[in-house]
Amino acid sequence: MSDTLRAPDAVLAAEVARRHYLAGESKVDIAGALGMSRFKVARLLEAARTSGIVRIEIVDRSGVDSELSARLRDAYGLRRCVVVDCPDEPGLRRARVGAAAAELLLDVVGEGDVLGLPWARTVSAMVQALPSLPPVPVVQLSGSMVIDGEHTPVDVVRAAAALTGVPAHLYYAPFVLDDAESAVTMRRQPAVAAAQAEVARVTVAVVSLGAWRAGHSTIHDVVPEPVRAEVAAAGAVGEALGVFVDADGAAVETGLTRRMLTVTADELRAPREVIALATGVEKLAVTRAFLLGGWVATLVTDRSLAQQLLRAAGA
Fold this sequence. Notes:
Number of domains: 2
Protein name: DNA-binding transcriptional regulator LsrR (DeoR family)
Structural class: alpha/beta
Keywords: DNA-binding, Transcription, Transcription regulation
InterPro entries: NagB/RpiA_transferase-like, SorC_transcr_regulators, Sugar-bd_dom_put, WH-like_DNA-bd_sf
GO molecular function: carbohydrate binding; DNA binding
Strand content: 5-15%
CATH class of the largest domain: Alpha Beta
Number of strands: 10
Family: Belongs to the SorC transcriptional regulatory family.
Largest sheet: 6 strands, parallel
Order of helices and strands: HHHHEHEHEHHHEEHHEEEHEHEH
Radius of gyration: 25 Å
Number of helices: 14
């Protein structure tokens, strides 16, 4: 049958469609009632769809754009992708992406895993949205930066560990030290060394991606301008946990790298599952870089950034 149905065929297709989709009758039952073969019933149902008599709409009321999530996942070869459909307001984006990440984390983390967490506003929103966690160890992935009104990595890890019922591996130390020698000395402190030794056991890590620009990377905002310029001159477009990457996703080493208490590039690549959280179109370059570099298996993001990532991929 063609897409344009003659009037008698349209009436018959509509009758078959009503019986099948609204009344729940099987094709065999419809065929018996109308005196035709089930193959003709199947052809009429197909004609009803192609001609527009029947329109099938999948409505996702979870706040997640399922179609965009699947397209972005396929475009970058991700294991999982969740795109949140929400207004472009920074606080709301973080809350919605954090809540979606919390739901996803409950599907990913299970018995035998070790969960690694840093501090980031979106990661903090994720932990606040978690109703529970399985009994797994939680490891602090980086040192702390004191920011008015914000939690520290210790707070985030403690909150997550309270949900697991398992003692956390954490330490009190700055994220960024004055120089490389001070960082080396700090790493030798027993509490720091003990917690950082647990990083090798992490199987699931959650990270937040930061663009190397004002207001979009906490590290960027706490270092002086000459250091910012040095990192940019090295080709870095952004970072995750202080691991810098260029536009193609290759790791970038800078003088700042040696001054930080955080994971190494190799340690960031090691877990079986790295879940990246990213919000806002300002993070297009850094998010694309981490995807191209194969650093993450799972991405949770907002609709606006997802659309830009698809355009950049030509998808």
